[in-house]
Please model this.
Amino acid sequence: MAKTILLINGPNLNLLGTRETPIYGSQSLAEVEKALGEDARARGLSLQCFQSNHEGALIDRIQAARGDEVDFIIINAASLTHTSIGLRDALAGVAIPYLEVHISNVHSRESFRHVSLLADRAVGTLVGLGTAGYRYALDFAASYTAAPAGAAARR
Model:
């Protein structure tokens, strides 16, 4: 059975390709999702994509992930990274391993972006690699979910 990866994108990421392109680039979210979907299929993975500008919808989707038998989550919570205890609690509650992704280097931006409420529970974080960070996250998720349970836990 194919491993299932859930890609979650938070507020304003629906504007990729048109929003502050010097920071976020010119690739749209639809283009990112299409390329990742093709890459996932080539690896024998199932990719589900979800984006919302609403915190509650993101929490609902994370909670549904357990019932959907999601094996790994790639999440760019965008601005909610720095403010949402609810997202953190939802991720902790479902106990699905996740990787946090940010297109820009949040550490070289405003000081309020330097703190992530999600990072300490994440398997890892990718920041500042542009939309290529999503591809690297999928590469990692593919190897993580293919590893024996004990090996994955030690990463």
User: Anything to note?
Assistant: Strands lie at 4-9, 46-51, 72-76, 98-102, 124-127. The domain at 4-149 is CATH 3.40.50.9100 (Rossmann fold).
